[in-house]
Amino acid sequence: MLTPSATQDLIMVGGGHSHALALRMLAMKPVPGLRLTLVSPDSLSAYSGMLPGLVAGHYRLEETHIDLQRLCQATGTRFIRARAVRLKPEQRRLYLDDGTHLEYDLVSLDVGATPNLTAVPGAEQHAVAVKPVADFHRRWQALRDELAERDRPAAITVVGGGAGGTEMALAVAHALGDRAGVSLVTAGALLPGFPAGVRRRMTRRLAARGVTLHSHTPVRQVQAQRLLSDDRELPHDFLLWCTGVRAASWLSDSGLPCDDQGFVRVNDTLQSPADARVFAAGDCAAFPGDLPKAGVYAVRQAKILARNLAAAAQGQPLEPYRPQRRFLSLLSAGGRDAVGSRGGGPALAGGWVWRWKDRLDRDFMDKFDRRLPRMDAAARAGAPDDTLHCAGCGAKVGAQSLSEALAALDPVIREDIEAGVDHADDAAVIRWPADQRLVQSLDYFPAFVDEPYLFGRIAALHSLSDLFAMNAAPHSALATVCMPRHHPRLQSRDLHRLMAGALKELNAARCTLVGGHTIEGPQMAAGFTVNGAAPPADLWHKSGARPGDVLILTKSLGTGIQLAGLMHDLSRGPWLDATLDSMLRSNGLARDAMAPLAPNACTDITGFGLLGHLLELCEQSNLDARLDLDSLSLLPGTEELVARGVVSTLKPANDQVLTRCEHGDIADDDPRLAAATDPQTSGGLLFSVDPGLRDAALAALAQAGVKAAVIGEMSVKDHKALTCITLNRNAPC
């Protein structure tokens, strides 16, 4: 992907309603030179208005969540899947839970709020909060599975009589029916702040669903199977907490002015009164007048937030946000039924109200699906420094940007490296023992994600994989990096993150970074020349396989298909998450697990795909191979993408290996056949192992946390013919 020139960084922390909508608006009217980054711990962001419908069974999970990966791809926004843990406004730094930090010119906070379990003794230990939704949904699914095996109804208690708790109690009652007795406990009256007509209708619906209402019953203590109030004890088997909210602790720790609950105070322009570079919206913001924590305000704030972020980046006047006084309120009532009112007016109720709410909710979510905008990248390219750039050595990254990026890096130290990045010499100087063999490899490729830290990790792991495939111990590395032509300040930030990511993996492998070369270009790219060492007798080669050896493959296949899906805007956040997680698993774990067993041959699966690299192993060992396609593990979503015609651009070249394969009646569009020729980035290792060591090898890999499977075997080659790979379905391995 080509990266337009940028001069400022806007970091958007959290994927709440305000930020999701603001990203759409900023994409449709980009600010020249402003680079957008979204930070969120999950690639899916729940739409709160549809959560009761999800619990009740009216919606699938994907219908109720905004796919942040896809939103960012569509809007030209960098996505970082991480959790913010600290903000230092004086340094303009946001710290993440992976140990790294981001520097910003502007930052916007939309990290929501969570039910406050700390206010009541025992609640943290025994209650399940409805937020974060991802955690709650996993617990809810587990509860449903548990109740299916139970021989008596469960006592389900919901604490909180506001809109969220009332809707949740009705949704749970609808979903579980006679498998559970549901109670709703509230410290005061039901639905405070709602019109009397709405309260009456929701009370009747609670009774009709068999929900026992305990109003004016403050919870004083929570125990394992009971709630303690002032004058009663209420039993429970499963406790849902939907009352009281608190902010993330790091907000108040930032030094920004916050209210008593830890929410960031903002003025009418949604800026912190203490720092005009910090914005906040949604539930995490404490607006003057103490707005209720309701999604309707977050949605309306998005428009002003987007305008003001753009204005702040361009030095223009900001607009005030004026909360609406009257708005439509629609409450789900368990089944396809809803109750609502507009601006405190007469209550509306019935199936038609639910259909109205359903239509509004689906229309909102459609903004992040079929109606996603496509950013005009050229509109961002008009930054002040977007001028012609030199080639040759004139394309090098500037000395100041380079020194700033490298200053805080800390490569591992080896005594046998006499000169490295800590010296100003023109080349590295390395002592090499006489009884070792130097094992050297080089990989380099353009970025497929625009997050430098993540890309740096994957680029390093991909390069190291060649050493692991030969059982060499990593020793040292040289970096080759191309950075986009941004303002030097942003360039330094990106280079630091890329190298910090690479060093995380190089240092973990005890591989010392000794130098490298950086240039400017139209897009980010990186690679490493890696040096390793091993005694000659310990090296693994492709030529050592023997007839009867079993073939063991680590990692699932499909990274090339997944990255192609990303380019075609057909990927989904959970698919990309699984793909990136696979790429980030070091093959060093598999190498360490297998080294004591001395496999006969090994190769890593990269650009030529599984079949291409297996063919190399066969030819080097002068053997044939049999492969069971059904034994291949595919990354989530790979089959769906293949069915939609998505393949890597390298597939036609890789498919040439099929001329050396016997695959009978297996269709050319079979997803597992497509995956077998799919180019892999940071793919797994393929081992050829003595059949007597099969079980020991699988056990060793499993103990190391490595996913692996037997996928075939080596066989004797007909010496009058070319090497051949036989592909089967449901063949025992």
Structural class: alpha/beta
Helix content: 25-40%
Overall mean pLDDT stands at 89
Regions with little confidence, pLDDT below 50 for 5+ residues: 377-399
Output the CATH topology of the largest domain: FAD/NAD(P)-binding domain
Q: Please state the second-level CATH architecture of the largest domain.
A: 3-Layer(bba) Sandwich
The number of helical segments is: 22
How far apart, in Å, are the first and last alpha carbons?
41 Å
Q: Biggest sheet, strands in spatial order?
A: 34-37-33-38-35-39-36
Describe this entry's structure for a reader:
With 733 residues, this protein is of the alpha/beta class. It folds into four domains: 8-113 and 247-329 and 351-377, FAD/NAD(P)-binding domain, CATH 3.50.50.60; 123-245, 3-Layer(bba) Sandwich (FAD/NAD(P)-binding domain); 392-537, PurM-like, N-terminal domain (60s Ribosomal Protein L30, Chain: A, 2-Layer Sandwich); 541-728, Phosphoribosyl-aminoimidazole Synthetase, Chain A, domain 2. It contains 22 helices and 39 strands. The strands form eleven sheets. It has a seven-stranded mixed β-sheet, with helices on both faces. Strands 5-2-1-9-22-21 form a six-stranded mixed β-sheet, covered by helices on one side. Strands 11-18-12-13-14 form a five-stranded parallel β-sheet. A hairpin with a 4-residue loop joins strand 7 and strand 8 (101-103). The radius of gyration is 29 Å and the shape is globular. Mean pLDDT is 89; it is low at 377-399.
